[in-house]
Design goal:
2 copies of one chain form a homodimer. Chain A contains 11 helices and 15 strands. The first copy, chain A, has about 300 residues and is of the alpha/beta class. Chain A has one domain: Ribokinase (UDP-N-acetylmuramoyl-L-alanine:D-glutamate ligase). In chain A, the strands form 2 sheets. In chain A, strands 1, 5, 6, 7, 10, 11, 12, 13, 14 and 15 form a 10-stranded mixed β-sheet that branches. In chain A, strands 2, 3, 4, 8 and 9 form a 5-stranded mixed β-sheet that branches. In chain A, a hairpin with a 6-residue loop joins strand 8 and strand 9. Chain A is globular and about 65 Å long. The N and C termini of chain A lie far apart (about 40 Å). At the A-B interface, helix 7, strand 15, helix 9 and helix 11 of A face helix 7, strand 15, helix 9 and helix 11 of B.
């Protein structure tokens, strides 16, 4: 089993959906990634920053799941990153109501000494230069570097994004972002162009339509589990990435065949995440439930046509 | 092997896409369904109507593939149904430029005598009462009745659609139409409501995002093959339905497990249909190509997670 370094936000979210609304609750890409990866009992550490207003109980939720939080800096006189969003009726579009960077504005990630030899690094959605500084702190090139990003960095830090993309193995990105990054409508063509930018594996997330994994001429497709209702999509993409990274860190096998399984685990965990507000569902998730849902995914996708 | 009755249009299409445009070419739901089903060497008959302007060579294309065309009425002094459409750059939306019903306006389908005992009936997209009259002509209730429809009939003949839906086993419908028919955004909930309207199997087509098969609490998902480019989507839905119906007629097995295979065959054949204008690709399709693409579908979707 490999060590896993996760960099991302640990934050407050306030969410409003057609089903209700929350006060400030535990959020942030680092939290969702860490909770998903913790399903695999890997040694993982979150590198992040919070303010003095961040409850110890939230940090305890992470360390209770054996996540190393020594890399989460606490700026006592600062305030924690805060995001608030409103989802529309179709749950596929949202308005950002509040973004307060607070302590994130000056965030300088520091990877704990005992994690600088980690074989797997998951770079959650942050400024590309912040993601890069994590790679610069590793003792050697990790076996697998996974990067998540978003359109905001394409609009505001494209050259920096290009630079960090040259040093990663896997990128996770949504369909619209893949199109924006390449100028190509076809996701097949977009994925090929992204591979030319650096990462040899490209995961394109399509929300309710699932996710595609590309590598050379190989493609794998994992659907999203069809759900009666999506209660709150917040964190689903990060949970997907955390499941993907956690499974690969556990199995230490980065073959395309095994990455297929990682995508299925990512989709499986994401399907739980959307069932309750924020990280609530992930905090109560049992091994038996995950097992059962993996079986659902098999039933959903596996068929028996004899080719003869 | 069962006999298969297909009712649908045999028509002229004129298509314009970002890649080019055609004059009047062979089109119509009956043609696409028939050509797809002919891949399975089943005994099939198309029930339709054309005008005196319809070229014998187009009819020959169908009968050359062992499709019984004795149920295609030729109205010598009438003109053939004509549709013309313009696809936009994303190929997901189109404008209808021309719809000339012509001989279709007075179409009274007549099922050939020797097909009135067919076990499988595929009702292509037509007025629900026209679809119903085909069922009324069968000697007994067929083993499997599959119906395709569209939003136009929901807007203009909803009560008739409800009536025919009570007499069918499988409905194929796209995602927006499923939402319109039920008023439900969640496709899981929509599929359940549609089952309450009659058909015990519901196939929801999601275009480039694949297709879902629902029955009771079971769900199966077949993705669309990710393609470098979609050249012309015309007929893809009908080709899907034809592959689905043809496979079930050939195998005479209407279990959920076998319907999964039928969905995969439908998706496979549809993935060819969009590669060229109209039915062009379907007319030149070899068994080896289908075989090879089924293997692509396996690679795309099958994975090996041991659940222990």
């Amino acid at each position: 089993m490999s060590k896993l370094v996760i960099v991302g936000t640990v934050a407050f979210d306030a969410i409003e959906t057609p089903f209700g609304k929350t006060d400030k609750i535990l959020g942030g890409s680092g939290s969702f990634i860490g909770l998903a990866a913790s399903q695999f009992k890997v040694d993982s550490a979150i590198v992040s920053v919070v303010g003095g207003d961040f409850p110890q109980s939230y940090l305890d939720l992470l360390s209770d799941r054996s996540i190393d939080i020594s890399g989460i800096e606490i700026v006592e006189d600062g305030k924690t990153f805060f995001w608030s969003g409103l989802y529309h009726n179709d749950m596929n579009s949202r308005d950002t109501l509040v973004t307060e960077l607070n302590v994130l504005a000056d965030f300088q990630p520091v990877v704990p000494e005992n994690y600088r030899d980690a074989k797997v690094v998951m770079l959650g959605n942050l400024h590309p230069m912040t993601q890069m500084s994590v790679l610069d702190q590793m003792n050697q090139k990790p076996q697998l570097v996974i990067l998540d990003t978003m359109n905001f960095w394409m609009d505001n830090a494209l050259e920096d994004l290009y630079t960090v993309m040259k040093r990663i193995d896997v990128i996770t990105i949504n369909d619209e972002e893949a199109r924006q990054l390449t100028g190509e409508y076809s996701l097949v063509v977009a994925a090929r162009k992204i591979q030319e930018m650096g990462p040899k594996y490209v995961v394109i997330k399509k929300g309710e339509h699932g996710a595609l994994l590309f590598h050379d001429d190989n493609v794998f497709y994992a659907p999203a589990l069809p759900l009666e209702e999506v209660f709150d999509p917040t964190g689903a993409g990060d949970t997907f990435a955390g499941g993907f990274a956690g499974y690969l860190a556990k199995t230490e096998d980065t073959s395309f065949e095994n990455m297929k399984n990682a995508v299925i685990y990512g989709s499986t965990l994401a399907s739980f995440c959307v069932e309750k507000f924020g990280a609530e569902r992930m905090l109560e998730l049992s091994r038996a439930e995950v097992f059962h849902r993996l079986q659902d995914f098999k039933n959903l996708t596996q068929f028996e046509i004899e080719l003869s």
